[in-house]
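**User:** I keep going back and forth on a fold encoding question. It is easy to fool oneself when nobody else works the same problem. Could you pick a protein and write out its sequence and tokenised fold? Could you put it straight underneath, so I can go through it closely?

**Assistant:**
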Amino acid sequence: MKLFIVRHGQTNENAKKIMMGHLDRDLSEIGVKQADKLAERLKNEKIDFIYCSDLKRTKNTLLPVLKYHMAPVIYDPILREKKQAIFEGRPAQEYYSERERIQNKHWRPEGGENFYDIKRRVRKFVQYLEANHKQDDNILIITHGGWKNVFMSYLLRIPRETVFLIEFKNTSLSEIELRPDGKHKVEVINCTKHLR
């Protein structure tokens, strides 16, 4: 099973380094252009099914792709970014400073989520894919940067501390062959050549 995994296009909050989490914001002008370029890159790929986070920034990243692909689409909150609760809409540095101060890998903001909460969502999603899709299916996933980090950590057994050294760019594309034996093959990671 081949997975095309994409982070959404840029938002104004991304550009200003504002923590988003579950905030439902739209793409910036740059993000709309990125989504168009992503659609051009994917137009000749075989895509059988599409899964997309149910937030505006992911839905509108997918929109131009649908001009070229008639695959069934499922909008699923399981693909949402990590919920940051009280830090949403605030400078991201406030969140990182608090996490650093607390020094507990299991810490989550009150009402929010941590790495392990997202890992449970990711595990459930991968199990769903394995149970409901054929090995020759090609699946497009439109999601968020943090979710994508946890997904890579889970799928490729990359340690939590290491995987976040990868900063997934807006509309970056990663391609992974999901194998039944668990020896998954990374074909492309964090590629933004379509934006050049």
Q: What stands out?
A: The CA atoms of residues 80 and 157 lie 21 Å apart.
